[in-house]
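Hi R.,

Here's the chain you asked about this morning:
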Amino acid sequence: MSTNCYERAVHLLSQREHSLFELKQKLERKGFSDVEINASLQQCQDEGYQSDDRYCELYVRQAMSKGYGPLRIVQSLKIKGVCTSLIQEYLDFDDDIWLEHAEQAWKKKFKPSNEPKEMAKQKRFLYHRGFESAIINKLINTRY
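And the predicted structure, written out as tokens:
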């Protein structure tokens, strides 16, 4: 196993959490062989430096605090190579929780309005943030 590959992986993990998939991609771009990468990543996992569980939990918490909805969080985590079962473990799909988060995101940006054009703009914003249409309609309909 190349010490350089392992050291690079540890350096990347010291900057921020990475999913296993992300870390592998970055090491591949640096020109390390698959054998070096796999051995280095296994060592990082064995030593507790890399964990998709920890990455997923942290990512979900941060995305929720930034006002993103479940659809966007799931999509982002899948792109980063996190498995669906792990995502479901850390992402609560309770509508009441997401209604509250949608309302917080909405309140930061908008004020209630009865104008159809403004309501459509607000709905598009929440769709873009990753909230489901049922949550958005419930929020918008209860505010007007």
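DSSP finds nine helices and no strands in the chain.

Let me know if you need anything else.
M.
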